Amino acid sequence: MKHFAICFALLFLTLVGYSQDYYIKPTTSIANQFSNIQIEAMENGNYAVAGYSLNFFPSTIKNKIFIRKYNKCGDEIWSKEITNDFNSISLIKLHIDSNRNILLTANIDTLINTNRTFFPVLVKLDGNGNLIYSKKILSTPTIGASVSSSSIAANGDYLIYFIHNHTSTNFNEYKVSILRTKNDGSVIWAQHYNSDSKTLRNMSATNDNGAIFLVSNRLCKINNLGNIEWCNSYFTSQNQITDPIETDSGFVLLRFNSLISQVFLIRKDGSRNQAWNTNGFLNSDNNFFHNSKKGILRRNGNIVFSGSINSSTKAAFVEINPIDGSFVYLKTFNSTGILSGLSAIDITEDQNENILFSGEDNGVLFNNTIIGKLTDSLTSINCNTNSFPPPTQLTNLSSPSSVLLTTTLNTNYFSEDIAINLIPVSNTIISSYCEFTKDRGSYKLDNDTILCQKEIITLGNASSNFDSYLWSTGAVSKNIQVGNPGNYWLQVVSACDTLMDTVMISYYPEIGLELGEDTTICFGDSIILAKDLKFNNYNWSDGSSDST
User: Fold this and answer.
1) Confidence band, pLDDT 50/70/90 cuts, at residue 308
2) Chain centroid, CA 30 distance in Å
3) Which whole number is the average pLDDT over 110-132?
4) Across-strand partners of 268?
């Protein structure tokens, strides 16, 4: 019996572990949400979404960051706004570290001697939204730096990619810089790179504890001390380019503009040997995949990018095999009806290989935040989607030209505490664009019931649609048949709910009817039958309805 109980518990946990709901739904916005709404997976299917408001109104209204945590059904766990009393604060990157803490990299906007100056800010929260620290990064109290990107290094350090004002007298003199801090925000080193371009793009930490970054149209690799290992230019135009994604084969990037969509792979040594380049993938209407902000390396080894097709109002997702650039999926959401204003901005993957994405509903005055959960094949159940197999066209990249960047180590950087306001706020789910695939919220068995002897009753609801069912009898079906007295319970599981109800089944006692022994009497005598019986109704063979 003990062995049965253990096996049964494992079966139920398996059912619970694979319970899924898929959805797309908007939540209320704060002011003018800028198109930088980011998402990162957390523990147990939870995830965090962050962004900031970009105010075009009087300067007394400051930019502020919002950070929200959701469970795996898209129900809000908590939501907070981050503000500074005197300055605007704008989100650059959202990260989740190995300890499940939330790290926000931001720019704080100040005025020094009538000059507008930016400073990098690190804000670290625990998984419950409580502040661990908030720190401003400085070289001197008056020289600023504008953050472009950030990443978490392989050993847990933080890397910040920024433009540095290296003189306090000329605010137009900049250097491209990367700064490394410990996870407590204290500075380890800062490296400055001499470049003829100040067009910072993206940066990603690498598995060897270094980083790879884009400046203008150049891709550069540094080691763990910030020294350049290689730096090459692979293309001439300065298109929009996503963060480099490290795979076993090399670094995968997507670049796009209004005329081209191109995914390419650069070998880890910076050479173009065996590199592939997939050009101009289109849908059936000859519309390009573009507006991608981010891609991720999936647990299955493929790369997925989120973006849009043709315009920012038609969300799209593309999955690519990084070994040869072949397409696995390219799917978009139908641009008609309620999904016509949907854009996909950021993307992540949970532990069950479901795709989570954040975006905007552009069909309203103040863009609402969109959150969504897709299946592992990039579809959302009950959402109108279409897919198409794009052409896989492999072409050669142009021969890279080596670019020499000199580095300057700066040890004067430090971090200091900065006061922020962490304000709990309440947000509202407006509606679901796509309905849940499973029942949620409540489950009720029938009322306690008394049955007649040998009567059988069916418990449960055959039309319910939960992920799993567990009865006190050990059954895992929607219904069971009961023919014995006792307390019966049912536990049902949906993606975020575990519900239980109990019903008592009892039986009326078995009652005998005895008229007495067979008896012979003389003619004219009488005998009383059924004396002291207490029933509701009587029907004798002579038609009488009396009790005796």
Assistant:
1) confident
2) 20
3) 85
4) none
Encoded amino acid at 72, one letter: K
Q: Do strands 187-193 and 407-410 pair parallel, antiparallel, or not at all (unpaired)?
A: antiparallel
Residue 103, classified by CB atoms within 10 Å of its CB into exposed (0-12), middle (13-18) or buried (19+), is buried
The tokens 């679901």 sit on which residue? Answer: 432
Cα→Cα distances 437→48, 375, 467, Å? 23, 12, 9
Mean pLDDT, residues 344-372: 82
The chain-wide mean pLDDT, for the chain, equals: 80
Tokens representing 379 are: 């579809």
> How many residues appear in the chain?
548
- What is the distance between the alpha carbons of residues 150 and 202, in angstroms, rounded to a whole number? 8
Q: Where are the beta strands (DSSP E) in 298-419?
A: 303-309, 315-320, 327-333, 342-349, 355-361, 368-374, 385-387, 401-402, 407-410, 414-417
395-400-404 Cα angle (round to 5): 160
**Residue of 523, 432, 400, 342 whose CA lies nearest to 27:** 432
Beta strands in 55-144 (DSSP E): 65-70, 76-83, 88-96, 102-112, 115-125, 131-138
Whole-angstrom distance, CA of residue 346 vs CA of residue 40: 9
Q: In sequence order, what are the residues at sequence separation of 6 or more whose Cβ sits closer than 8 angstroms to the Cβ of residue 58?
A: none
If DSSP codes are grouped into helix, strand and coil, which group holds residue 544?
coil
